[in-house]
Amino acid sequence: MQRQIIDHTPESLTLVDALQPDLPIIYANPAFEALTGYPIAEIIGKNCRFLQGTDHDQQELATLRAALQAGEACVVTLRNYRKDGSLFWNELHITPIRDPHGQVTHFLGAQKDVTERKWAEVAVELSNQRYYQIFDRASAVKLIIDPGSGTIADANLAAAAFYGYPREQLQTMSIRDLNPYAETEVSTTLLAAERSEHGYFETRHRLASGEMRDVNVYATPVDTPEGRVLYLIVVDVTHKRQSELRYRALFRQSNDAVFIVDLNGQHLMVNQRAADMFGYTVEELSRATYRDVVYPQDYPDTLAFYQRLIDGEQITPYECTLRHKNGQPVTAEINIEVVRDTDGRPVHFQSILRDVSERKLLEAELNQRYQELDGFFSVALDLLCIADNNTGTFLKVNKSWEATLGYPLDEMLSHPFLDFVHPDDIQPTLDVVEYLRQQNDLLHFTNRYRRADGTYCYIEWRVHPVGDILYAAARDITERKRMEDDLRQSEAKYRLLAENTSDGLLVFDATLGQVTYASPAYDRQNGRQPGEFIGLDLSEAIGNLNPDDRVAVMTAFADAVRQQAETATYTYRIVLASGEYSWREDSARFNYTADGNLKTMYVISRDISERKQAQQREFDLALERERVHLLTTFVQDAAHEFRTPLSIISTGTYLMARSDDAQRRTLKAEQIHGEVGRITELVDMLLLMARLESTDLQRFAAVDVSSLIMAEAQRVALTGGQGPRLKLSLPDGLLTISGDAEHLAHAFYQVLDNAFRFTPAEGAITVSAQWVEGQIHIDISDTGIGISPEDLPHIFETFWRRDNAHTTPGLGLGLPIAHRIIGHHGGRICVTSALGQGTSVTITLPAAAER
């Protein structure tokens, strides 16, 4: 609001910086531009003397300089020149602005065009001079008139020139020929002049051209031998009267309050602005005295002030507080002087009052801004300064400079700033100074400044020029420069290491979505040309990944990023240009942004093909050893199983050959037949195991598990004779699976056979089957002798029987074969047992798709 008021005030205002040597203008309102014709942008940073042009020999300039030097207010009237070269008289009011410590920081200048007033004063002075010229030689218009008839007895050359008549013609004319007024009025005027009743008249005269001119006539009766005549001096006051009219208009319309006060303090004349300033009408204020606008406690000082003026003391404009009609204070700047007559006697006081409320607001605002800026300037951590680009010196620096360089601030202000610059940086600094003279802003210029201890620090600059004044903010970046140098050296070392290590290095910038670095070793590992990885996105960078490994690697990568893992390790294969596979092991480190997004990924890639090959060879060797071991064990077990029946057969044939007892021979033959059957069964089971191990089951068809279990249970029961009781709990509906019926029957038979074999006659065997959520559960439980906990883990091993002597019934192949058959059908077989309490075998098989 205050700024808008100042900008829109019709009074021309300027503000200059008193802390700078040349007092540059730092603010001017639009009224200044309208008065002088100079654009505001053109005069900011200049001294006001440019308005003087070449007219420097003016007496009042000394008064102005003295006031500025002393930091005092003053009012001077100067000849100034507009941008178009035209002259105008400038009544300049200078007011100092001080900070809280009393130091003058700015000067506020108020300009007023008083050209017309000055020219009017000159005109009056010329008129007064003419008044005293003698008749014949004077340039003033002079006439000798016969008061009785009004005829012109004589006229000087100036009169002839003024009226436009030849002198001889004027001497034949009457004053009535020149005066347009009525005969009686002219006669009365002449008579009054003759009697010395009036010696001055304001009238109008007609020229030969018919033009009417305003004149002042000074009449003096003079007695001559021929009689009394009137000695007239005619002064053309047409322009003066017009000026008076204009000045009366200015008086009435002036933005300043104008008072004319008699020596007793009575107001003789006031203008409208004065009435408005103090809350009166013009008539009310004209009837008032100075006591009505002065506070009672100020009466004595006001009287003393008036007396000092009467005594001849020159008093410069000053500020005071007067009283409004409503009692409120009015702050005004007063310029008052005594008007004296030609003898030097005081006639009245004439004063001009200017309402400085707006200026006070401006001063308060400027002072507040100054305090804010000065506070910011003082406490800022950055290096702030104001410098003169012409003199190359600091005008003001903040305390951060002292903390950074170690010099007292006074020492910095007393030396050119180039004195502190490193010798190698002087020329670049001079280049920048020239650049700033072109009014260009400067960003990010760095040079070195000397500290008080002789060392140098790096200073980074940002500068804004305003004319010859530089406003700069700088920063000590020495530590940053050191870190940058260290970083460059470190980067050079790591780059040297990266480019010479056998491991490949890759950097992926997730914010850019591309590879920003790949070491030569990484290029070689992947069969790429140097630099070929740069700019690739992630999918392109892993384009040669083995398809079988791609999903696993990408899933592991996504999981690591989702879990905000710092590191991760991946092993995978890549496809070389030759079509061969090569193994890689990548160790990745992840950096994340503040909001948890992946920022950068660093990868160290190692070729582990040789290690993988060594591991594969080691695995193959171990597998071969295991195969040999299993084969050896199998051969030993098979040989053991064959040795017993073969031994029995051999012994039986030997005895049969030497025995004549037919009954005994028959018994031995039956025994041999039983052992041959045992061998045949063993061979059949070995062949079945071989088929299960070496080929896939291809004879899958729909199989009803209930029917198959029932048939095998009955077969076992018939074979076992008087065995334990058999309880079947099978559903009425079909329990269908997809499988090999012959193999499944064999598996069920082996489990049921074991149950019958190890359950006493008084015991029981329970068989049940049911469909549960896409699975068929078969449970075969007995109340037999049970299996000890230490034997239970071995029941599915080939040729395993409870005793090493193999006296336990069976071949040790039934359960292993059953286990393999069930496994081939995608099922499971589980055994639980307690010694002396029985055994429970649970078989689970996947049901067919449609039940």
Which key terms come to mind for this protein?
rod-shaped; 851 residues; 29% strand; alpha+beta; 5-stranded antiparallel beta sheet
Question: Secondary-structure blueprint of this entry?
Answer:
Layout (H helix, E strand, L loop, with lengths): L1 H7 L3 E6 L7 E4 L1 H7 L3 H4 L15 H12 L3 E8 L5 E12 L5 E10 L1 H17 L9 E5 L6 E4 L1 H7 L3 H4 L4 H4 L4 H12 L5 E7 L5 E13 L2 E10 L1 H16 L3 E6 L4 E4 L1 H7 L3 H6 L11 H12 L7 E6 L5 E12 L5 E10 L1 H23 L3 E6 L4 E5 L1 H7 L3 H5 L12 H12 L4 E9 L5 E11 L2 E8 L1 H23 L3 E6 L4 E5 L1 H6 L12 H4 L5 H16 L4 E9 L5 E12 L5 E10 L1 H50 L3 H33 L6 E4 H16 L4 E5 L6 E4 L1 H17 L6 E9 L2 E8 L31 H11 L3 E7 L3 E9 L5
Parallel strand pairs: 27-29
Antiparallel strand pairs: 1-2, 1-5, 3-4, 4-5, 6-7, 6-10, 8-9, 9-10, 11-12, 11-15, 13-14, 14-15, 16-17, 16-20, 18-19, 19-20, 21-22, 21-25, 23-24, 24-25, 26-28, 29-30, 30-32, 31-32
Helix pairs in contact: 1-14, 5-10, 22-23, 23-26, 24-25, 25-26
Describe the structure.
- This protein is α+β, with helices and mostly antiparallel strands and about 850 residues long.
- It is about 40% helix and about 30% strand.
- The protein has 26 helices and 32 strands.
- It has a 5-stranded antiparallel β-sheet, sandwiched between helices.
- A hairpin with a 4-residue loop joins strand 16 and strand 17 (about 395).
